[in-house]
């Protein structure tokens, strides 16, 4: 690798908090390479899509491992971009994997179990977590398997837990996490906040972070 590596930035949040819109804008504004998870085009991603659209049944453990596997499918490609000095933006990643699977409250699938297959993946240099207090009013939930208010409430609780545990146990998040409450804000306003946060987040060195 010659020169500075690119930055790996993650935008996380519940369904319908505007992640994809914001990632798309950011990739245009700041020239980021954009990676959306799950990526439904890969071999594993096609199976995930069948599950999400309720065309295929899988055990909770299996689908969890497939989501992780989908991240591993893209890992080398992302690493090569970063090595080449290109900034990358992720739309969902490991924390979605943990929050959605753990929200099912299946025996044995606690957060520790859920993290295992993601160990060794690149860790983002910055995680931006979008929250929206009025997501319940949002009539826009679609037909996919996790798109209902009750399940989203459970996911929200898990996200809260994940980030509070990580703050206590992992110093890393203290410097690499920003919560942005988008309640009542328009797309442009949120974009401005995010561009500001990302522009001010510089790397201290070229070392990569890993889970
Ligand atoms: P999407 O709506 O952002 O395409 O994501 C599809 C669904 O997959 C969404 O409800 C969140 C869920 N999900 C997981 O359950 N585990 C994961 O690891 C990821 C990335 C997403």
From TrEMBL:
Q: Which residues form the Thymidylate kinase-like domain?
A: 11-167
Q: Which Gene3D superfamilies match?
A: P-loop containing nucleotide triphosphate hydrolases
Q: Does the keyword S-adenosyl-L-methionine apply?
A: no
Its keywords, alphabetically, are:
ATP-binding, Kinase, Nucleotide biosynthesis, Nucleotide-binding, Transferase
| EC number, UniProt record | 2.7.4.9
User: What are the GO cellular component annotations?
Assistant: cytosol; nucleus
Give the record's GO biological process terms. Answer: dTDP biosynthetic process; dTTP biosynthetic process; dUDP biosynthetic process
Q: What class of enzyme is it?
A: transferase
Q: Name one GO molecular function term.
A: dTMP kinase activity
**Residues annotated as transmembrane:** none
- Could you name the domain of life of the organism this protein comes from? Eukaryota
InterPro entries (UniProt xref): P-loop_NTPase, Thymidylate_kin-like_dom, Thymidylate_kin_CS, Thymidylate_kinase
Pathways per UniProt? Pyrimidine metabolism; dTTP biosynthesis
The entry's family comment says: Belongs to the thymidylate kinase family.
Name by which UniProt lists this protein: dTMP kinase
């Amino acid at each position: 690798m010659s020169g500075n590596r690119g930055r790996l930035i993650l935008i996380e949040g519940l369904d319908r908090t505007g992640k994809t819109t914001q990632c798309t804008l950011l990739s245009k504004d700041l020239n980021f390479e954009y990676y959306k998870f799950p990526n439904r085009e890969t071999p594993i991603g096609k199976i995930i899509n069948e599950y999400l659209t309720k065309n295929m049944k899988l055990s909770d453990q299996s689908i969890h491992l497939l989501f992780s596997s989908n991240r591993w499918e893209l890992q080398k490609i992302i690493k090569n971009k970063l090595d080449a000095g290109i900034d990358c933006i992720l739309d969902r990643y490991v924390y979605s994997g943990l929050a959605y699977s753990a929200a099912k409250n299946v025996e044995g699938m606690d957060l520790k179990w859920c993290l295992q297959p993601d160990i060794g993946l690149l860790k983002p240099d910055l995680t931006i977590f979008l929250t929206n207090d009025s997501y319940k009013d949002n009539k826009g939930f679609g037909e996919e398997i996790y798109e209902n208010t009750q399940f989203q409430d459970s996911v929200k609780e898990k996200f809260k837990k994940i980030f509070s545990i990580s703050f206590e146990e992992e110093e890393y998040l203290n410097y690499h996490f920003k919560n942005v409450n988008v309640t009542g804000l328009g797309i442009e306003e949120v974009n401005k906040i995010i561009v500001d946060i990302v522009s001010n987040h510089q790397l201290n060195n070229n070392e990569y972070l890993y889970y």
